[in-house]
What does this fold into?
Amino acid sequence: MIMSTPTITCGVSQVPVVGFGTSKTEDPAAAVELALQAGYRHFDCAHVYRNEAEIGRTFAKVFSGEIKREEVFITSKLWSTFHRPNDVEAACDKTLSDLQLDYLDLYLIHWPMALEPGKGTLNPVMITKCPYWTPNL
It folds into this structure.
């Protein structure tokens, strides 16, 4: 028997308070499918986990059956090398494509620090003046 998950109201959405994280999952496709069968309805994904395509195949399979997409709250995150305004939409589109979704319920900035594109994943951008905004100091 699957128990219902408590939710909180956020705007017009009901967000399940318990979510299933997909980072460092040995077999993400199987883990997500089992989590859905167990009643999880909130999933935390991210480009940097490098498993969104596998999870997307599971979502496509499950959402064509008895579980509806609208019943599941899906979060993903913008990786730090894609913070530049011209990169955000393409990064989101890639996530949507990999997850085989038409929409995300929540898209977050993974870390609040930009990293240099193309130089690995952990090289902070060292800037003295941001070309996109000026902080009010």
